Amino acid sequence: MTTAEIGRKGEDAAVAHLEANGYRILERNFRFSREEIDIVAFEPNERDDGGMIAFVEVKARSGDGYGRPEAAVDTAKQKAIKRVAEAYLHERRLIPSPTRFDVIAVHLRGPQVEIEHFKHAFGHFG
Questions:
Q1: Dist. CA 38–CA 80, nearest whole Å
Q2: Would you say domain 3-116 falls under CATH 3.40.1350.10?
Q3: Partners of 59 in the beta sheet?
Q4: Considering the entire predicted model, what is its pTM?
Q5: Spatial distance between the Cα atoms of 102 and 121, rounded to a whole number of angstroms
Q6: Tens of pLDDT along 101-112?
Q7: Which of 91, 77, 76 is nearest to 32 (CA)?
Q8: Can you tell me the distance from the alpha carbon of 115 to that of 40, in angstroms, rounded to the nearest whole number?
Q9: Which tens digit of pLDDT belongs to each residue from 65-111?
Q10: 30, 57, 79, 84: which sits with the fewest CB atoms below 10 Å from its CB?
Q11: Long-range contacts from 71-78, C-beta under 8 angstroms, 24+ separation
Q12: 69: cis peptide before it, omega within 30°?
């Protein structure tokens, strides 16, 4: 598989995981300037009277040669995601809304797909 195919398969698996866990997908591959957020999702709370917007970065790997997928979300990537998230909230007039930043690591091992979801993976706005 090409890098693009691995990325697309990883994002598709992450979307399926989120939807299976009750999330609503609001946007995929939202771009601002030259940067992007892979998934914007809404997680309703248990009482269904509110919830939280999750900005989700997906990292997929087909092997372990480059380290763990989530390790690729370094400080520079986190700052870029925050900039795009702020633009998304501003464009959609969703400020202030409860938000968080998640990372989903997808391990593609042949036909088997393993997913790790790291909620509140990094920082806050500011």
A1: 12
A2: yes
A3: 105
A4: 0.91
A5: 5
A6: 999 999 998 788
A7: 91
A8: 17
A9: 677 878 889 999 999 999 999 999 999 998 888 999 999 999 998 78
A10: 79
A11: 73/103, 73/121, 73/122, 78/122, 78/123
A12: no
